[in-house]
Amino acid sequence: MTLDPVTLGVVWGALQSIAVEIGTTVHRTAYSEQAREGQDFSVAVFDPAGRMVAQGPYSPGHMGAMSFAVRNALAAHPVETLRPGDAILLNDPLLGSGHLPDFFVTQPAFHAGRLVGFAVNILHHTDVGGQRPGSQGVEGIFDYFQEGLRIPPTKVWTEYAEQEGIVGIIAANTRTPDKVLGDLRAQRSALRVGELRLQELAARYGPATLQAAMDEIIARTEAGMRRAIGEIPDGVYTFEDFMDDWGPGTDPLRVAVTVTVAGDALVIDYAGSSPQTASGLNSYINYTRSYSYAAVKCLTDPFGPMNEGALRPVTVRAPEGSFLNPRPPAGGGPRAVICYRTFESVLGALAPALPARVAAAASHMANPTFGGWDRARKRRFVAYELVLSGTGARATKDGCEAMAWAFNASNIPVEAQEANQPIVIERFELIRDSGGAGTFRGGLGVRRDMRFLADEGKLTNLSDRQRFPPYGLFGGRPGRLARTVLDPGPGETLVHGKASREFAYGDVLSFQQSGAGGYGDPLARDPARVLEDVLDDYVSAEAAREAYGVVLVPVPGAGPNVGRDGAPTALRVDVEATAALRAARRA
């Protein structure tokens, strides 16, 4: 069928709108803080053959895995066995996105007895049982049976009827049944919205026209992606980076990547990466693929659709038995901490070929979970945190502050945590001098101090970049290292980035994230921008001199204006002294 451009454009806009509406419904009806506030979920629309056509503006880590998850769901429940109102749930690490808290739900949409597509979503659930509250432990995990309830592709709804026995098993295997069932039903309700909108679209244009439009969208996306890859110089590009370790007292994990560009196709190979670990810290292949796809998409065709067509020109490989493609039943609960490293390794590899498009390494996130007894509410609780910090500097811009990197999520608001959990957020601030210096500065690390008014407290820490700093590019400096501290101040105790430990009522846990890497020679940074950073308290006057070669002096006659550390706040650039200092540094 030949489609006119107007019809194709309207159908494409409708498919995008359907994906957004599914996501908005999840966002407004979810029970958990990470879904309602942190937006740790994703949605997409698929065609009748199980090919992704349109996605919502959420996490690429979910999206890259979603195509494989839908394929696996339909392999277990072939299309000819599906009926209106059926919905397939799975969270198996190998079949889905690599860990048990991610629940994929796939629902078909029929019009006049004909399958016209699928509405699909994935949501990170608060707790699915296992060894640690939050189901994301690193230490003491040797297989995924310790991490919680594993669900193969299963019809949890059959012709719109919830299967009470299956839902009861899920509720019996979580520490937070109210949140898990609330979120699961929010997923299901949102997919019902997507089903209705797909039916309306098929009724308006006819199933044949809708299918033709889906085919054309995927074909055009693939063509656009291949054109963009074709603009990269052919070659073999390599890079390596390291995870700090896979738990206290363990060795670093090497991420080695080789990116081969040949014509309009690209191969990403992680041969040489470290073997799988006897811990929770492993990334199943779908998750490794996800952030590899995302990196290529950002560098090639960032404004084009992300669907099946965008995935076809890219092949992702990792040796079986490596920590980026482990053999089941390897643990994988805390695999989220790995996503930055795979994403940034692809960026690092392609930096020589695409210097104007890449960014330096970002400040690493913290994704800890907590559990214990809430004495005020007289109940057990599980709390989930996202501490999102600075992004890497780019060829023309500084990094951003306090933003997600490599995926779309948000710092959970202070008010949401304090209203729902036995937590008081005592500090939530940017860390001065943490961003890597460069012609363009890396984003700053974030500090978030949390006082726990809970008994029997258990922390599952999940952080990184406490040993290997975020890298800079083209002369840019790395960011400052991260750290986690119990009861910061005199007598404070350092907490390992992947430790599982207890805490007491009133204890304060301080998550101090690394700064992001800089881009370009720091001595080439505009002195006026350095001054602005000092006045904004992003950079100290001492660091302005040491890192950037910029000499700042008080403004004559400005009076005793001083900041919190007693340093003057009315400053100007000493142009002559700066030029002399920079010349001496270059010499």
Strands ordered across the widest β-sheet? 2-1-5-4-3-6-7
Provide mean pLDDT, rounded.
Answer: 96
> Proportion of β residues?
15-25%
- Fraction of residues in helices? 25-40%
Spans where pLDDT lies below 50 across 5 or more residues: none
The assigned structural class equals alpha+beta
CATH fold name of the largest domain: Beta-Lactamase
Please indicate the count of domains: 3
Distance between the termini: 68 Å
Number of strands: 22
Shape: globular
Largest sheet: 7 strands, antiparallel
Radius of gyration: 25 Å
What topology does this entry show?
Elements: H1 5-29, H2 33-36, E1 41-46, E2 52-55, H3 60-76, E3 87-90, E4 102-111, E5 114-124, E6 154-158, E7 161-162, H4 164-172, H5 177-205, H6 207-230, E8 235-243, E9 253-262, E10 265-269, H7 285-300, H8 308-311, E11 314-317, H9 339-350, E12 369-374, E13 379-384, H10 414-420, E14 423-430, E15 446-452, E16 455-460, E17 483-486, E18 493-495, E19 500-503, E20 508-512, H11 527-535, H12 541-548, E21 552-554, E22 571-573, H13 575-586
Parallel strand pairs: 10-11
Antiparallel strand pairs: 1-2, 1-5, 3-4, 3-6, 4-5, 6-7, 8-9, 9-10, 12-13, 12-16, 14-15, 15-20, 16-19, 17-18, 17-20, 21-22
